[in-house]
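Why run this: before we spend reagent on co-expression, it is cheaper to look at a predicted model of the complex and decide which construct boundaries make sense. The entries below are exactly what would go into the expression plan.
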Amino acid sequence: MKVKVISVLEDNYMYLVIDEQSKEAIAIDPAVPHRLLEIVSREGVRLTALLTTHHHWDHARGNDALVKELPELRVYGGDDRIPGLTDKVTHGQELKFNAINVRCLFTPCHTSGHMCYFTWEDDCTDSPAVFTGDTLFIGGCGRFFEGTVEQMYHNLTEVLGTLPLDTKIFCGHEYTIKNLKFASLVEPENEKARDDDDKPTVPSTLLEEFEYNPFLRLSEESVQKFTGKTDPIEVLRVLRKEKDNFKKPKERVLPHAMLALEWGLLRP
Ligand SMILES: [Zn+2]
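The model came back. Tokens follow.
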């Protein structure tokens, strides 16, 4: 099983998973169809299915164009809002694409129909992989747009957090640098927080995430101290809120008049 990591749009990842024996492939969140098709033909493989983590446009918007190009394509997902959906999947459902096995993991919260996909290959000693969309990022977790803190807690601890520790994490966005800046604010003493500059950082492993991702470290004393809470759900609630605010200062845009005042161009 070969995973091609393809950077698209501003900071999205789409993935092509190839079964090298049969030369058949499946794609995860192929938001830029022509890029994907270029790589499909360069690799000399046949694309048979799309797995969509959630309906947001930067993950699902390529589906219709790909189905138009390849009418036999199956489109899997857990939400009726996913364009081109042919097979709605449920939690624990297993799919098979030649030697590639996929277990669908229902992880509602970022969106109410979000799915992660755990994959492994028959007769292969390689580590398994999980495609986590906008639920788990390297060093962080997704925003709670359509769900509750309890749901995200369940996703992180019960659904994803119980996978084998060597599972490779392939997430939906490259947010790693920003996430690790926040992680080191939460746990200044934690030297495991990596900083890989501008290199893409997927995949990490679940074991690595447990070492530096504060959203998977809810019971650590340092994370509890930062949030001022001890109940893990409350710790998660505060962490997510702090992370939402953490981004804001940089993105704040000053009105022109304020800028002019700052620069001394306007005299009151
Ligand atoms: Zn999203």
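The first helix runs from residue 33 to 43. Residues 54, 56, 110, 134 surround zinc ion (CB under 6 Å). Bring this page to Monday's planning discussion.
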